[in-house]
Amino acid sequence: MDTRSDTRQFLTALRARLSPEQAGLTSFGGERRVPGLRREEVAQLAGVSTAYYTRMERGDLGGVSDSVLFALVRALQLTEAESAHLFDLSRAATGPRRELRAKPEPKVSPRLAQLLDTMRDVPAIAMNRVSTPVASNALGRALFPDLFPADAAPLNHARYLFLDERSRSFYPDWEDSARGTVSSLRLLAGHDPSDRALMTLVGELATRSPEFRTWWGGHTVRTHTAGSKRIHHPVVGDITVGYETLEVPSAHGLRLVTYLAEPGTPSADALDLLRSWAADAVDSPTS
Length: 287
Prior knowledge:
The structure is a single chain. By secondary structure, this protein is α+β, with helices and mostly antiparallel strands. It folds into 2 domains: 3-94, lambda repressor-like DNA-binding domains (434 Repressor (Amino-terminal Domain)), CATH 1.10.260.40; 110-283, Beta-Lactamase. It has helices spanning 3-16, 20-23, 39-46, 50-57, 66-75, 80-94, 110-118, 138-143, 157-163, 166-170, 174-191, 196-208, 210-216, 266-283; strands at residues 124-127, 133-136, 226-233, 237-247, 255-260. The chain has a 5-stranded antiparallel sheet with strand order 2-1-5-4-3. Helix 1 runs antiparallel to helix 6 (80-94), helix 5 runs antiparallel to helix 6 and helix 12 crosses helix 13. The longest helix has 18 residues, at 174-191.
């Protein structure tokens, strides 16, 4: 990961999306040569010189104080995720360059495995930092059957989205899901650019998927800890589920994702049907 290049493209994209009117500046009309704010306008809003802001936008965040970074957050109206990414880029620019390293994979404790199995009515999957399932309950496997092949390890969700054609029919809103995954990986990469497993995954997807490569270059960052998904399930048909992501403090890098349908809806009926189907599959001696 090239921190200077990433910083340059990130700040340029943020500046381009914000108009003078949105930033609270007076616009005097006329043709503007650049979309969004000019560099001198961002500098004015942040209370720094144009030369200093230009240096930052060119990728040099080394030594930039937190107060200046917070001023940029306000000037560019950054979200929480974008703010975190900006500070991560600054830390990467200020500290020594770290070599790629393998991070220890989180372990699923017996207690967490028991918790997953006890949650029989709620699809639940434990994911690692790069969205590879490391544990799940029966209903979680039933809800996402492609991720859990019978005689192989679970599939990484990002690889499934971009490299497995089945994902495009499974997710009717495939592009939304795919773009969301890219923005999550971009945020993670800014936080720890030395994570070998993450950088290997990004490199593979950028090489093999034109969509991933294009969206990765957009430098959008976003957190996806809650929301909803539309699924075209091979057994129960169309279903919309809301998801919540819970961090597992006792296993750093592990998060528990649960899925529920809105009560009294066709999706709730479909989830009930899936519960019955999953229970029958578990009880059947030929499953």
